[in-house]
Amino acid sequence: MKVEVVDDAVLEAIASISRRLEDMQPALDLVDQALVEGSHDRILAGHNWTGARFAPNSPATMARKKGTKPLVGSKSFVTSRLHYEAGRDSVAVGSSRPSRPG
To answer: Which of 42, 60, 63, 91 is the most buried (most CB within 10 A)?
Structure first.
């Protein structure tokens, strides 16, 4: 997922802060942590990053899946796959594993 800020006021506020800080990584770490926590909450509630409900498991997934436990029914599943990385002037949130097709 890539989030692009297009609001001029927000961009100017970020630029203003950036001019005052040589290294924004400590502040961006907090942004990343909030993004990951929000992602955890959405996934555990059964929603993707757009807020739409997850599609039902495909027959191929159901054939591979062991038992009836939901694939995203525990924080350990989510926590082990989402991560963030903050740089001097950037943030990135992502999954350590790509999704399997259908």
So the answer is: 91
